[in-house]
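BUG-476 | component: ligand-complex export | severity: low

The export step for copper (II) ion jobs runs without errors, but we want the raw record kept on the ticket for reference. Input record follows.
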Amino acid sequence: MPKLFQHLDGAVAVMLTAIIGSFVTPSFLTADELPVETAKLTAAPSVPPVINRDSPAKVIVNLDSIELQGKLADGVDYTFWTFGGTVPGSFIRVREGDEIEFHLNNHPSSRMPHNIDLHAVTGPGGGATSSFSAPGHSSKFSFKALNPGLYVYHCATAPVGMHIANGMYGLILVEPESGLPEVDREYYVMQSEFYTTGAYGEEGLQPFDMQKALLETPDYVVFNGSVGSTVGDKALKAEVGETVRLFVGNGGPNLISSFHVIGEIFDKVYIEGGTLTNDNVQTTLIPAGGAAIVEFKVDVPGTFIMVDHSIFRAFNKGALGMLEVSGPEDTAVYTGKQEDSIYLPEGGALQSIAGGVAPAATIAESKEQRVQLGQRIYEQNCSACHQPTGLGIPNAFPPLAGSDYLLSDPRRSIEVLLEGLSGEVVVNGATYNGVMPAVSLSDEQVANVLTYTLNSWNNNGGEITPLDVQEVRSSH
Ligand SMILES: [Cu+2]
């Protein structure tokens, strides 16, 4: 109870406190007298509810550090070190002026000690030494949220890089006293990299690779802890006309993110998660250990793809997410394709981009060698769409791994490569309606890459020879 009312009769004082407390900011309250609440934490992409208080509270945060095995990509597992059992860690939402009583609980099953450095803390190590907890121990410390903004938190136990690389980061939002403008949807998206012994897509439980981490050459760059975390069924959702706010963090440990949503313009960006805002932004830079808040209104339906615009990270390392917007078209904003007509430049089509036939490659002398040579051709010509795993991308690129289309008639696929393929095609029961461009490869190369696909990912083997390719080519 505020000291002011202590001389009053109990019941009256309680009433007055209740009435006055609702519109006066009781800055005279000491930490012990603040209303107490326990923070509701959420896993990405969810964000805790907006804070409706207009005065400070004492907020109790209970966060567990947990080490557990989980999925990094299809068929690829990783032993994650987490805050709250998820990567990124639980989202924490407090208000400027709040007193935060922080409990870091290191689960008894942990093999490592952990601590937490919250960038929202004013104090040595951001809480690191005060929160250092051995397995099965819990540490408590308190801090005042002095500065509003969106902040990264992370483990800072040595070796720090390794604790972060294994997944120990998350976001804490300190809402300004005046609150953030109201929006229809809020989501939590955090980018980070993983360094694994095996290359991208290599199956099985993958250990952390210290050498790659030192060289800053990750195999995976992902949003929300795994490849495809916000793709397909798990895409973020919104409806035409709604306003969307993304709380975007970058856990690193090394890379800077060039965060971009394909087909959207950020109406407003809170630069670096601070108070300065910029309008009409295409791509915003998010440093390692930094954050940004982006806001935009969705005007037309469709799939809007979130990427790190360092684009090989998006299409080859996993830094790709989706926002699915449903609702009526608005052709005044975007028409969709209005026409497709034949374009025949004078002088005919170009033979190939390089201006000639691909250079003569090594001639395979055995099926094994054909498979081996075919792998490189696959990586350079096919994997961007059909993926290194051969699994393709749902609704966009059909799989070659276990594809009934490919395996039931391998020779038909020679034609697919030579002629390209478009229009509806059904693979393993799913309909694709895309365009596969014809490839400009020699007979030998077509034979090698198809033999590679027939002998990879548990496909049932077989061989295509250059002679097979020549036959198909000459029959056209
Ligand atoms: Cu740790």
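Assignee comment: Attached the raw record above. Residues 367-381 form the longest helix (15 residues).
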